[in-house]
Amino acid sequence: MSKILEVAPEIKGLIFDLDGTIADTMPIHYVAWRNAAARYGIDFSVELFEKLAGIPLYKTVEKLNELFNKNIDPQEMGDAKEAEYEASMHLAQPIEPVMDVIRQYHGKLPMAVGTGGCRYLSEKVMRIVGVDQYIDQLVSADEVSQHKPHPETFLKCAELIGVKPQDCLVFEDGILGMQAAKAAGMQAVNVTNYYEVTIGQ
């Protein structure tokens, strides 16, 4: 795919999701969830993964309990999934069409990352793909009480970079994230139209 992501001239701040937007980590997350879920007799399909993408760790386990009529300890399964993910996250690659935008606007527009992941692993993957040097602010699941599709994550990003929500452009790959951007009154672009998604392949 050779389409180029563009930023309209009226935009004053850029906000990025992390997993599947800046870093091609979704295949790694999927395998980690699949392996962790299998221990509890759950067949974690690609379709289910895509449906739950963007929901924080322990809340995902709560959703699995509802869907599969289980009583799994969210922390136990969530921690098992994160251990699986952390063991393979060194394989993460940057998503170049998005990185091109970040490099182009570094020092010109303020930029933030708004992610449903925890701060520790988010900071680590940002270092792995080399984006940490360009981003001004990070809002993780640890800093908000309401997660995507609620707009709190992106509204907090806008506040931290000092830009009004309507003047922000959000880069996302997930349905919940796109809904959160819309709820925040921000413009948004789905980056999966600009690179090849390989989850489950």
Automatic annotation (TrEMBL):
SUPFAM superfamilies associated with the record: HAD-like
Source organism superkingdom: Bacteria
InterPro entries: B-phosphoglucomutase_hydrolase, HAD-like_sf, HAD-like_SPP, HAD-SF_hydro_IA, HAD_2, HAD_sf, PGP-like_dom2
Family: Belongs to the HAD-like hydrolase superfamily. CbbY/CbbZ/Gph/YieH family.
NCBIfam families referenced in this protein's UniProt entry, alphabetically: HAD-SF-IA-v3, PGMB-YQAB-SF
PANTHER family registered for this protein in UniProt: FRUCTOSE-1-PHOSPHATE PHOSPHATASE, GLYCEROL-1-PHOSPHATE PHOSPHOHYDROLASE 1-RELATED
Protein name listed in UniProt: Phosphatase
Organism of provenance: Sunxiuqinia dokdonensis
